[in-house]
Task: inverse folding
């Protein structure tokens, strides 16, 4: 099965009942598959919107009817969604976005893979906020992580991003579909609690429209009732700090990763398609003194995991961009952090990474 | 008068054999002439006419983005005007870029009254990304996002009436035409570029790949659309319907049955109910535009 189709199937397994989307290479198969599957599922809705701005807005609307909602896009479409993404963050609307990353900027390379949106997903809309971003490195992970994204979206009341790339989205591999996937819906709003009063975890219960509560939703800075209160510095400070901390404070608890060779001296930190080359180098070729940390959740960044390699002399970060997550690694450690940047659409070769290990050995 | 021998779109591009939009591109430039600047939205024409490392265009050509050709053209036109220049500024965009994602920018450009000609080559779906429905997709057509099957009869909504939407903006000239009538395209484009103000032309460009017919039948398909009343060639000048192509109408089956996108209306059995609904669309067109020839 293709990664994009696996992602759609993962969403359906997780009970996604609303898909609003717009065709864009290389993500279109997600929408096409949903268009074919959803009419057969009672209560489900596939809707093709007129552009990506509208797609993102539609899934926000659907989420407030209580539906698990999702869209899929790539590069230019992702850029168009940015204002609405900030709106979803501010209104604490649970929803899932699949971004099959392609080469940018602008129209760039529609049919080639990239990881150039990793900073955009974290910081692309205006203002301070935080989000959750998952990165699959296989078709199986496309399925598993898309399903998981819905649970995280509901738990944290936030947009959650499946940041795949064209390589994984169009890859065909064997997929094992489990009999069922874990489904954790958002906590309900307790009686007497206001719609935006946070629980101990910083997340308010969720009362979608028509569930017996008066709910006022706005992108303006708001109080616990949801009513606009835009000139009170303390209110804005408390709200935005909570939107960030409800996610950042959970970064180690929700971390999803694989660690191989904790004794390694040269450690790859990787996510998405480059994981495959790292596995070839470390798992198969067993290049001496190497190990890796694969991150399936990249944002929020679980920096404590970097301490799990006590003998590490240098971290090596292969990315299909000119160096994004490498900066995040670098700001948490005092040893050398070496980027292996590759753009243009092709994966790193094992030789690229072995060369990087040699450079690391010579400089440490 | 337009120089019909003028070739400003070169051969050797990468369109499918029998591509309707490729024909349209060639004819548009014959009508517009050499002093033309083209803004092209993302789409089939953008891709097939500019295969690396070549271009088929012999005039200045800019790929805007998907949604913003009319806005980029607005900037070009407004700036040219300040410089005392008068090149023709033409947008050439597909139906997805025109009917769906680009509406905001088109509406803005027409409301501000820029002296541009916006041309939509209408192949009735997103063909560049692999045949997804658009606001221009006709009723009951099967596409990858409106697939016909047990639970669906294809696209469930009628085609959006973009020419009337632009006419309602007060555009001085709105016209429709078809690649089946080449001289008509040249004439209408020439007329539009010589009118001051925002003009809109929508060209029916059958797509053999997306609609499912043999590439040798493109012109035939274009003619059938007109002869059945499912496409109407007209001109609206300053809000008034001026000229309509009249026909001796054929039943819509003649047009539907030769295209795979409507195959589900004929197999496994003839769906007379749905075909009657499509006939009603043609009848309404005939009534609205008075296309029936009096015999």
Result:
């Amino acid at each position: 099965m293709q990664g994009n189709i696996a992602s759609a199937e993962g969403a359906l397994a997780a009970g996604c009942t609303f898909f609003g989307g717009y065709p864009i290479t290389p993500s279109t198969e997600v929408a096409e598959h949903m268009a074919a599957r959803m009419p057969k599922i009672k209560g489900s809705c596939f809707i093709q919107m007129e552009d990506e701005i509208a797609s993102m807005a539609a899934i926000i609307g659907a989420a407030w009817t209580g539906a698990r909602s999702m869209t899929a896009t790539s590069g230019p479409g992702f850029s168009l969604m940015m204002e609405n993404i900030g709106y979803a963050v501010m209104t604490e609307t649970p929803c899932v976005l699949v971004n099959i990353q392609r080469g940018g900027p602008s129209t760039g390379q529609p049919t080639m893979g990239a990881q150039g949106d990793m900073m955009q997903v974290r910081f692309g809309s205006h203002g301070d906020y935080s989000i959750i971003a998952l990165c699959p490195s296989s078709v199986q992970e496309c399925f598993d992580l898309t399903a998981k994204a819905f649970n995280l979206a509901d738990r944290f009341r936030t947009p959650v991003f499946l940041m795949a790339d064209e390589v994984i989205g169009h890859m065909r591999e064997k997929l094992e579909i489990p009999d069922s996937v874990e489904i954790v819906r958002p906590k309900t709003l307790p009686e007497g609690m206001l719609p935006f009063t946070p629980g101990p975890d910083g997340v308010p219960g969720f009362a979608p429209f028509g569930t017996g509560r008066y709910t006022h939703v706005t992108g303006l800075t708001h109080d616990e009732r949801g009513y606009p209160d835009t000139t009170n510095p303390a209110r804005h400070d408390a709200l935005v700090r909570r939107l960030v901390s409800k996610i950042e404070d959970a970064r180690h608890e929700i971390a999803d990763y694989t660690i191989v060779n904790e004794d390694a001296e040269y450690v790859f930190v990787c996510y998405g398609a480059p994981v495959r080359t790292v596995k070839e180098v470390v798992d198969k070729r067993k290049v001496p003194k190497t190990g890796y940390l694969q991150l399936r959740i990249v944002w929020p960044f679980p920096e404590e995991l970097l301490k799990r390699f006590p003998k590490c002399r240098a971290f090596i970060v292969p990315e299909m961009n000119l160096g994004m997550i490498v900066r995040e690694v670098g700001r948490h450690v005092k040893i050398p952090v070496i980027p292996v940047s590759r753009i243009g659409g092709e994966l790193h070769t094992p030789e690229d990474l072995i060369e990087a290990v040699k450079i690391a050995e010579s400089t440490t | 008068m337009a120089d019909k021998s003028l070739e400003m779109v070169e051969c050797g591009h990468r369109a499918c054999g029998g591509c309707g939009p490729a024909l349209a591109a060639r004819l548009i430039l014959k009508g517009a002439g050499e002093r033309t600047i083209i803004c092209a939205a993302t789409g089939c024409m953008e891709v097939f006419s500019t295969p690396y490392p070549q271009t088929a265009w012999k005039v200045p050509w800019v790929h805007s983005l998907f949604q913003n050709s009319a806005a980029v053209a607005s900037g070009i036109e407004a700036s040219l005007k300040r410089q005392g220049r008068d090149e023709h500024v033409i947008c050439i965009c597909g139906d997805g870029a025109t009917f769906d994602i680009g509406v905001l920018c088109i509406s803005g450009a027409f409301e501000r009254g820029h002296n541009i000609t916006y041309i939509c080559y209408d192949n009735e779906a997103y063909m560049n990304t692999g045949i997804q429905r658009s606001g221009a997709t006709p009723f009951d057509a099967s596409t990858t996002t409106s697939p016909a099957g047990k639970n669906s009869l294809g696209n469930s909504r009628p085609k959006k009436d973009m020419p009337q939407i632009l006419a309602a903006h007060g555009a001085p000239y709105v016209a429709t035409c078809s690649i089946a009538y080449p001289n008509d395209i040249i004439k209408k484009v020439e007329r539009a570029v010589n009118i001051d103000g925002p003009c809109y032309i929508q060209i029916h460009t059958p797509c053999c790949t997306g609609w499912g017919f043999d590439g040798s039948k493109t012109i035939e398909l274009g003619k059938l659309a007109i002869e059945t009343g499912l496409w109407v060639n007209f001109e609206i000048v300053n809000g008034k319907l001026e000229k309509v192509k009249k026909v001796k109408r054929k039943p819509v089956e003649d047009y539907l049955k030769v295209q795979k996108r409507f195959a589900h209306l004929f197999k496994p059995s003839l769906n007379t109910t749905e075909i009657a609904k499509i006939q009603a669309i043609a009848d309404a067109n005939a009534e609205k535009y008075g296309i029936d020839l009096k015999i």
Summary: The longest strand of chain A covers residues 95-103. The mean pLDDT of chain A is 96. Chain A touches chain B at residues 22-25, 28, 31-32, 35-36, 39-40, 46, 48, 50-52, 76, 80, 106-107 (CB under 8 Å). Chain A is about 35% helix and 20% strand.
